[in-house]
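Worked Example 4.2. Read the sequence first, then its structure tokens.
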Amino acid sequence: MRPFLLSLILLLAAPTTLAAKTILVVGDSLSAGYGLRPEQAWPSLLAGRLAERRLDYSVANISISGETTAGGRSRLASALRQHKPALVVIALGANDGLRGLALDQMRGNLDAMIAAAQQAGARVLLAGMRLPPNYGPYAEQFQAVFADLARARKTVLLPFLLEPLASRPELFLPDNLHPSAAAQPLILDHVWTALAPLLR
């Protein structure tokens, strides 16, 4: 009986000991929840949605306010080793653009991040950004980087992370740059449209 009982115990214990797959979010203040409580940011809301739907995923949000693509690139390797994610959401570039940094460098950083995540066996969702029209031709070239990379790396693209808020100033904090708590569920719903098909 003892071998049978041992097998039964192991069988019953197996579902609770299997680790959930991880979604790694690598972003800036827009994903770190600048000005908000951590649980209000959209990646935290994502974790709640996954739990509600009993999807076997956890969320590791390593986003940092002020982060650039160079900073994200420098931190990604250790994050991939630590979290071993099944899916990586890359939501960087806004600070590069607002500072007018060289787009070739931004492209190279994002490309290296996508490649590293894919080589680690993770699926990638690239979240694009846009700049105000007063940035002129630079704004158009900036936006094109995301589409070009997604096409070249054959990865999923969410063209504009803040699409649902673009024409709704009331959903931003007084600085007019960072989304409010009320905006976070809208961002989650928008991200979900691209993310959900990748959950397998």
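Now turn to a second chain, presented in exactly the same format:
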Amino acid sequence: MFRRKIETVLYDNYKDKESKIIIIDGARQIGKSFIIRASASSYFKNYVEIDLKSDFEGEKLFENARTTKSFYLLISSLYGDKINSVDDTIIFLDEIQYYPHLITLLKDLKKENRYRYIASGSLLGVTLKHIFIPMGSIEEIKMYPMDFEEFLWANHVSKDSIEYLRECFINKVKIEDVIHKTYLSLFKDYLICGGLPDAVKEYVENRNVIKMRAVQNQTFIHYKDDSSKYDLTNKLKISKVYDFLISNMGNKVKRVIFKKIENKEDSNLEKYEEEFDYLSAAGVVNSVNAVSNPVFPLNESICKNLVKLYYNDVGILTNLLYKNNIQAILENDKGINLGSVYETACAMELVAHGHNLFYFDSKKVGEVDFLINDYNNLNILPIEIKSGKDQNNFRAIPKLVAQDGNYKMPYGYVFGNKNICEIKDNLIFMPIYLIMFV
């Protein structure tokens, strides 16, 4: 079993009898069910797992379980020998989005306190937008593909080694060259593999690129097919938007050009807003909104018609781009531009750490890849990602951090391949893998 950061949250919840019921929300194939199953079954004496997707597609036993009484009767008839009391029994409601009424029922189940509960759903972000969520008794937690640090754990990288990197990041100290080469190589492995646990297993444990790519390809197909479960009318448009991302990744300007999605000149965000919302709520894309004025808080100056979309997993992207030719990434082939790949991985990392993503682009200033809210300093943190050898090829970010300019941001980060840890003109230059500490 791969170690995941969410385990700490889960075990803390299990230990506290007064804790809220957790609902883990995230895309398919990112390890939600596995980590709940492994942790809950090891902690509680009595563990019951109910696959609501299978029930919905089969006998529909839980379709009419709309009161606590009917729910208890059904549970006792199905799992009577596996349940006891709130002290030693937990019930895992997997794929709960198939029965939204069970989400609203959780409040009463928690109040009556007969058993412990935990739930998850792969399209939960979509479902929760259309139902009332009981406040005070339920805690929704987002889960994502494995981030780079979790990928390092899967590669058996030691805690001490990661702490060494963390200290270098904090103190802006250059990393030893041998260690830099090791971690840059691991980061490139991550670009190939991504963070889907089944893909990580095939790549890290079995070194099987063919099976790893099969996992990524099948997940890509699942993500498209899931759109039919959301809205049959818009299924085709959702699939077209999702398919369109790969062609957009090769553009110098990554923002979505709406007229190219269906080759319609009069297209704009309004025509695709529901589809974009679906993909984002389902967790299969990471959206980056443009801001008209890069001042804190960024949420107040969003440009609704300008948006960039990245796949939620960099392994899905490199599979679509390069298939089994992993050498194109490992050897930094001069003939290919890895900009979109690096940006996708960094978007994954920042989102997994709880950041909402923005970007800024203007004719006078230029474009900065990512902006995030810096709540500690009530300011903005600009981030530039460089995939090539020239780590100084930028024009916009210096203008944002210039203290005699219009924006006066305290500092910004430039992440790239070189082993540089230094501050120059309010810009902090660092190796690309250190973005895991932002």
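Notes for the reader: The chain has a mean pLDDT of 91. The radius of gyration is 23 Å.
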